[in-house]
């Protein structure tokens, strides 16, 4: 990482997150990402595409510091976060919400309780944490959780256990839980990879609606070129750990797809497979 941090580019006034020459090398020597510089603006709905192992998931996990970058710099709302530790790091992870392919719900808890887990960041004392974990949530917190569940279309499932839901329903719970954090940025790592086509449409449509109605920038990792073209406002293509394309969906040509995916780009299953 550089010793001197340059201030955030003043021309990027609406930038929520910026990376500069971001790289990650794992202990086994694998260089997952290299030299990635990008800006996520408030009006962005970004889909990142690339083959398995291209570095998509590593990049997304670096953005909220679930993975520590090996080099480069990151800024969240103008604040340098590359070296964040302790309280600052917790704040970064609270502000950068994230959902995953496997949902990561507490399966024995109810849908409502899973959403309320997203409110734990607002509990400032040990007593508050203990109360929350014992399901003693305030009326205001429960009303917010119900509102979020209604937003994602599953308010009627609030008292069902998470492990009784379908995959698409569980992903909607995960979205509601992330919204409960009041995030400044919403990340989604392969959110439809485990879902059927109908549920995939629902989840992608929901993420796009959240972006448009609540003004939250969204960054999604996908293999699906068709979904990327239909839902993204901006597409980033990654190959061998580096950005090879960054532009609007209409600029994603077949030649660029070959650059992103290599020879496998001719595989007809790419448009539909996860």
TrEMBL record:
Instruction: State what protein this is by name.
Output: Abc transporter phosphonate import phnc
Q: Which Gene Ontology terms of cellular component type are present?
A: membrane
PANTHER family (UniProt xref)? AMINO ACID IMPORT ATP-BINDING PROTEIN (PTHR43166), PHOSPHONATES IMPORT ATP-BINDING PROTEIN PHNC (PTHR43166:SF6)
Q: Does the keyword Nucleotide-binding apply?
A: yes
Domain ABC transporter, by residue range, is 17-265
Q: What Pfam families does this protein map onto? A: ABC_tran (PF00005)
Q: Identify the species of origin.
A: Desulfoluna butyratoxydans
Q: Which InterPro entries match?
A: AAA+_ATPase (IPR003593), ABC_transporter-like_ATP-bd (IPR003439), ABC_transporter-like_CS (IPR017871), ABC_transpr_PhnC (IPR012693), MetN_ABC_transporter-like (IPR050086), P-loop_NTPase (IPR027417)
Q: Which UniProt keywords apply?
A: ATP-binding, Cell membrane, Membrane, Nucleotide-binding, Translocase, Transport
Q: Which Gene3D superfamilies match?
A: P-loop containing nucleotide triphosphate hydrolases
Citing just one GO molecular function, the answer is:
ATP binding
Q: Which SUPFAM superfamilies match?
A: P-loop containing nucleoside triphosphate hydrolases
């Amino acid at each position: 990482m550089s010793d001197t941090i340059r201030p955030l580019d003043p021309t990027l006034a609406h930038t929520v997150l910026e990376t500069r020459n971001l790289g990650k090398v794992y202990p086994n020597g694998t260089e997952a990402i290299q030299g990635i510089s990008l800006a996520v603006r408030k009006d962005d709905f970004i889909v990142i595409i690339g083959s398995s192992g291209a570095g998509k998931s590593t990049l997304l996990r670096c953005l909220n510091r679930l993975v520590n970058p090996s080099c480069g710099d990151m800024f969240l709302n103008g604040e340098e976060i590359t070296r964040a530790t302790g309280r600052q790091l917790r704040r970064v992870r609270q502000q950068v919400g994230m959902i995953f392919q496997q949902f990561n719900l507490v399966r024995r808890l109810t849908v409502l309780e899973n959403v309320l887990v997203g409110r734990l960041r607002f509990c400032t004392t040990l007593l508050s944490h203990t109360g929350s974990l014992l399901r003693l949530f305030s009326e205001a917190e429960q009303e917010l959780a119900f509102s979020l569940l209604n937003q994602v279309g599953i308010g009627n499932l609030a008292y069902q256990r998470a492990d009784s839901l379908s995959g698409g329903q569980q992903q909607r719970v995960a979205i509601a839980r992330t919204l409960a954090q009041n995030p400044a940025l919403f990340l989604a790592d392969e959110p439809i990879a485990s879902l059927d086509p109908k549920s995939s449409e629902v989840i992608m449509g929901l993420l796009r609606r959240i972006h448009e109605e609540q003004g939250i920038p969204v960054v999604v990792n996908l293999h699906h070129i068709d979904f990327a073209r239909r839902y993204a406002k901006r597409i980033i293509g990654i190959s061998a750990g580096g950005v090879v394309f960054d532009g609007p969906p209409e600029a994603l040509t077949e030649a660029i797809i070959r650059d992103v995916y290599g020879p496998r780009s001719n595989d007809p299953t790419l448009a539909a497979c996860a």
